[in-house]
């Protein structure tokens, strides 16, 4: 079976595909507050993390350390690489690299796609 990139060969010469994953955790009323491994791991993989909460839902964000959006809170993601089976696989790989979280592919839903188009020769996402 080929990769996602193989199936979209004509598109790859014109644009790069990036992923963005938002980690949303819905907590039942009897569960304790979710934590990132433990308090000492607030700087997992060299990053800083926060969780926004409303009632029993949590959204995990990371502080962007470099490139486009540096210094801003964001979801996790990055470029789809040639050996990624799909954008969903790429998103899970990026999430693990950036946060240390391992999530099963069956626990992930694709809820939308964003397309970014850049003009000129300089790539501003890095």
Automatic annotation (TrEMBL):
GO terms for biological process: DNA protection. GO terms for molecular function: 8-oxo-7,8-dihydroguanosine triphosphate pyrophosphatase activity; metal ion binding. Keywords: Hydrolase, Magnesium, Metal-binding. InterPro entries: NUDIX_hydrolase-like_dom_sf, NUDIX_hydrolase_dom. Pfam families: NUDIX. GO terms for cellular component: cytoplasm. Residues 63-120 form the Nudix hydrolase domain. Its cofactor is Mg(2+). Belongs to the Nudix hydrolase family. This is 7 8-dihydro-8-oxoguanine triphosphatase.
């Amino acid at each position: 079976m080929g990769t996602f990139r193989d199936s979209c060969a004509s598109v790859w010469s014109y644009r790069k595909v990036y992923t963005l994953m938002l980690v949303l955790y819905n907590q039942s009323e009897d569960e304790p507050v979710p934590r990132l491994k433990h308090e000492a791991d607030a700087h997992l993989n060299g990053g800083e993390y926060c969780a926004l909460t409303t009632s029993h839902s949590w959204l995990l964000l990371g502080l962007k350390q470099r490139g486009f959006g540096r210094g801003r809170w964001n979801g996790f993601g990055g470029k789809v690489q040639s050996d990624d089976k799909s954008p969903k696989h790429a998103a899970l790989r990026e999430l693990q690299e950036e946060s240390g979280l391992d999530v099963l592919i069956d626990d992930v839903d694709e809820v939308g796609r964003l397309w970014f188009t850049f003009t000129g020769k300089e790539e501003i996402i890095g």
